[in-house]
């Protein structure tokens, strides 16, 4: 099973961490707390987890330019959401494509890591 842990800015200017796995969600003040919270929700046969920490630095799978643009669009999306609106359709499509690209990059990173572990 895969567990994704995302850092999310809070309204107070800090960070909170959201863990997502098998349709479940949990939050914590640290990535470890979010992982513990999601693990507590999982059935016993799904709690054996390999944790890979991604530092979210640019790499060959998701570039610095892509990260910057994703961050810009997320700020705009949150502001629009908080104001009761939405992004223009072109920006929303770009945001969706970048999120999908980040997910694909995560899979590619994991595959590369697995290949390295097998060597």
Structure report:
This protein has 2 domains: about 5-45; about 65-119. The longest helix has 30 residues, at about 90-119. It has 3 helices and 3 strands; from the N terminus they run E-E-E-H-H-H. Helix 2 (about 65-80) crosses helix 3 (about 90-119). The protein has helices at about 30-40, 65-80, 90-119; strands at about 5-10, 15-20, 25-30. It is of the alpha+beta class and about 120 residues long.
For the largest beta-sheet, the strand count, sense and barrel status come to:
3 strands, antiparallel
* Number of individual domains: 2
The helicity comes to 40-55%
Which structural class do you get from the secondary structure elements?
alpha+beta
Strand order of the largest sheet: 1-2-3
Query: Which stretches of 5+ consecutive residues score pLDDT under 50?
Result: none
What's a concise summary of this model?
With 119 residues, the protein is α+β, with helices and mostly antiparallel strands. The chain has helices at 31-41, 64-82, 89-118; strands at 4-9, 15-21, 24-28.
Please specify the SSE layout and strand pairing.
Elements: E1 4-9, E2 15-21, E3 24-28, H1 31-41, H2 64-82, H3 89-118
Antiparallel strand pairs: 1-2, 2-3
Helix pairs in contact: 2-3
State the main characteristics.
119 residues; alpha+beta; 2 domains; 3 helices; 3 strands
